[in-house]
UniProtKB/TrEMBL annotation:
GO terms for molecular function: oxidoreductase activity, acting on the CH-OH group of donors, NAD or NADP as acceptor. GO terms for biological process: fatty acid elongation. It comes from Gordonia terrae. This is Oxidoreductase. PROSITE patterns: ADH_SHORT. The keyword Kinase does not apply. PANTHER family: OXIDOREDUCTASE, SHORT-CHAIN DEHYDROGENASES/REDUCTASES FAMILY MEMBER. Coiled coil: none annotated.
Length: 252
C-alpha cells in the first residue's frame, strides 16, 4: 500500500470542502466542527439563522434557507465552489421528527417529513454529483436506528429514515463507478433538542439507558467522529454501509 494512503484523517481531509446540512443542530454542528478541525472548509446549510454566526466562528461559510428549496441547496454547492473551487464531501444531517401515532399524522406533516428527511437529501446529492465526480468525493447520510425497528410514536419518521438508508445503499452501487462513496450513520439515543422531551422523562430515560451496554447516551461528537472517519481516506474502501452509533443498544 502506498505511503500516501496511510495518513490519518487530518492529512487526507485538509484542504478539502464539505457541505453539512442541518449545521445549526446538535448533530450537524458537531459534524461541521469536527470536519473543520480536520482542516476542511465547511459550508453549513440550515434554516436556522444561527448558522451564520456558527459557521463564521469556525471560519466556514453559511447558507441560511429551507433545504427543501432546490435553489437553496444549489446555493450551498455554489458557495463551496466559489470559495474553494471544489466539493469533496456532503453530509446530510438535516432532519425533523413528528411525535404522534401514525394514524393521526396529517398528510401535510407526513409530506414534510419525507421532503426534509429524504427528498432534500437526494436532491442535494443529485445536484452535486458532477462536482463529486471531479473529486471522487464522499457522502454520509445521517439515518437512525428507527430505520429498521418499529418505534411507537415515530413510525412515519422511521419510515423516512428507512428510505434514506436504502437511498444510501442504492447510490453507493450506482455512484461507485465514479469513485464516489456513499454511507450512512445510524445514531441511537443521542441528547439533542430533538430528543429533549422524551429523554427528559425519567422512566423512559432510565429504561433506555439500561439497555445501552456503554451505559450512556451519545452526544454530537460521538457521531461527528464516525462521520469524519467515513469521509476520510481511512475509509477509502468503505461504501454502502449503515454504521450504528448507539453504544451497543441495537444488539441488546
Amino acid at each position: 500500500m502506498a505511503d500516501t494512503q496511510r495518513g490519518g484523517a487530518r492529512e487526507s481531509l485538509a484542504g478539502k470542502t464539505a457541505i453539512v446540512t442541518g449545521a445549526a443542530g446538535g448533530i450537524g454542528s458537531a459534524i461541521a466542527a469536527g470536519l473543520t478541525r480536520e482542516g476542511m472548509h465547511v459550508v453549513g446549510l440550515d434554516a436556522d439563522g444561527r448558522v451564520d454566526d456558527l459557521m463564521g466562528s469556525m471560519g466556514g461559510s453559511a447558507v441560511c434557507g429551507d433545504l427543501t428549496d432546490a435553489a437553496i441547496s444549489q446555493a450551498a454547492i455554489d458557495a463551496a465552489i466559489t470559495r474553494t473551487g471544489r466539493l469533496d464531501v456532503i453530509v446530510n444531517a438535516a432532519g425533523i421528527q413528528k411525535r404522534t401515532d401514525a394514524i393521526d399524522i396529517s398528510d401535510d406533516d407526513f409530506d414534510r417529513l419525507l421532503e426534509v428527511n429524504v427528498s432534500s437529501a437526494f436532491r442535494l446529492i443529485r445536484q452535486a454529483t458532477k462536482s463529486l465526480v471531479e473529486t471522487k468525493g464522499s457522502v454520509v447520510n445521517i439515518a437512525s436506528l428507527s430505520a429498521d425497528r418499529a418505534v411507537p410514536g415515530i413510525v412515519p419518521y422511521g419510515a423516512t429514515k428507512s428510505a434514506l438508508t436504502q437511498l444510501s445503499k442504492g447510490l453507493a452501487v450506482e455512484l461507485g463507478k465514479y469513485g464516489i462513496r456513499v454511507n450512512a450513520v445510524a445514531p441511537g439515543y443521542i441528547e439533542t433538542a430533538m430528543t429533549a422531551d422524551v429523554l427528559g422523562e425519567a422512566e423512559f430515560r432510565d429504561a433506555k439507558l439500561a439497555r445501552i451496554p456503554l451505559q450512556r447516551f451519545a452526544d454530537g461528537d460521538d457521531v461527528a467522529d464516525v462521520v469524519t472517519f467515513l469521509v476520510s481516506d481511512a475509509a477509502r474502501y468503505v461504501t454502502g454501509v449503515v454504521l450504528p452509533v448507539d453504544g451497543g443498544y441495537s444488539i441488546t
